[in-house]
Amino acid sequence: MKAKKLLVSLFIITLLMGILPKAALAGKGEVVSLGADLTPEQREKILQEFGVTEDEVEIIVVTIQDVRRHLPDATVKETGTRAYSSAHVKLMPEGDGIFVQTHNISLITGEMYANALATAGVKDAEIKVAAPFKVTGTTALTGIMMAFEESTGRRLNEEAKKTANEELQITQDISEDIGKEKATELIQKVKTEILSQDIKNPEDMRQVIINIANELGVKLSEEQIDQILKLMEKISKLDINVDSILNQLDKIGKNLDIVKNTIQENKGILQRIIDAFLGWLRSIFG
After folding, report:
1. In which order are the strands placed within the sheet that holds 30-35?
2. What pLDDT digit, counting tens, does each position of 188-232 carry?
3. Lowest mean pLDDT: which of 78-87, 106-115, 230-239?
4. Which residue in 64, 140, 252, 271 is deepest, having the highest Cβ count within 10 Å?
5. pLDDT value of position 15
6. What's the pTM value of the predicted model, to 2 decimals?
7. Using an 8 Å Cβ cutoff, are 199 and 208 in contact?
8. What region, left, alpha or beta, does residue 51 occupy, with left being phi > 0 and alpha being psi -120 to 50 degrees?
9. Are 137 and 105 in contact (CB under 8 A)?
10. For the chain, how far is it from start to end, CA to CA, in angstroms?
11. Which letter, b or e, does each residue of 119-150 get, where b requires 16 or more Cβ atoms within 10 Å of its Cβ?
12. How many angstroms separate the Cα of 43 from the Cα of each of 54, 58, 90, 133?
């Protein structure tokens, strides 16, 4: 019975983290962005990772110049000199939210991408980000946004795209001190509070940042608070659909909570199985 419960629970985790909703719009709005510097062999490997072939999806190529166009203030160290990161974007039914999986991305999590993509105006999409070898992932957002634009046939707000890239960079920077999960949750909750309450005053924004950091039990430096504050000021001034962003953030937050709760529950199940196994060994060997 315990083994059966474990298998069911592990299946649920796999379902939540890997097997995404199947109600996708099959064959519609499905685009792959490939890094321009991939070799033919690497290109084929990436397509296999995405589970598609060239004749099944529309393919666009993303160059390092495209990345720098979306990150005008970034240094060469931050953008690199080659474009390898690739993305597979599939539109989902309205209300499904943003789901992001990553492969060979070392610094940016799927949730970090999803939060930033909501700021850019991306919505209801199943996204996979991959590279042929380990990369930081800081520039992959460009390919995702380009693929989403291609799949929908509409252009995202340029200022929103720049702000989304900045958000991703700030989240990653802060994660080095407080961890990826906490950094993601912090930015998501601060953004949700400021947008939902239509907060415009910088000092009120600062207090929101401090309050939520305290709620999460994280310590931010004054420099980090200022970074987040400047980001939130930019987000609050964007000409974007606030309700749409809030809906996407709500989906991301709920999915994060489900995954965290399921992992905690299964940690308990696994521990009980380990304890039972050790008890069985002790009964045999004393």
Report:
1. 58-62, 30-35, 86-91, 125-135, 98-105
2. 999 999 999 999 999 999 999 999 999 999 999 999 999 999 999
3. 78-87
4. 140
5. 43
6. 0.76
7. yes
8. left
9. yes
10. 26
11. bbbbbbbbbbbbbbeebebbbbbbbbbbbbbb
12. 10, 14, 19, 12
- Residue whose C-alpha is closest to residue 141's, from 197, 77, 68: 68
Express each pLDDT in 16-57 by its tens digit: 444 333 333 333 479 999 999 999 999 999 999 999 999 889
Count Cα atoms within 13 angstroms, Cβ side, for 114.
30
Beta strand 125-135 with 86-91 is: antiparallel
Identify whether the C-beta of residue 53 lies closer than 8 Å to the C-beta of residue 105: no
Structure token pair of residue 28? 């519609």
The residue among 29, 5, 12 whose CA lies nearest residue 150 is 29
Residue type, 47: L
- Distance (Å, rounded) from C-alpha 238 to C-alpha 78? 25
If DSSP states are collapsed to H, E and C, what string results for the chain?
Answer: CHHHHHHHHHHHHHHHHCCCCCCCCCCCCEEEEEECCCCHHHHHHHHHHHCCCCCCCEEEEECHHHHHHHCCCCCHHHHCCCCCCEEEEEECCCCCCEEEEEEEECCCCHHHHHHHHHHHCCCCEEEEEEEEEEECCCCHHHHHHHHHHHHHCCCCCHHHHHHHHHHHHHHHHHHHHHCHHHHHHHHHHHHHHHHHCCCCCHHHHHHHHHHHHHHHCCCCCHHHHHHHHHHHHHHHCCCCCHHHHHHHHHHHHHHHHHHHHHHHHHHHHHHHHHHHHHHHHHHHHC
The residue count of the chain comes to: 286
Query: Are the beta carbons of 116 and 161 closer than 8 angstroms?
Result: no
Answer whether 170's CB lies under 8 Å from 74's CB.
Answer: no
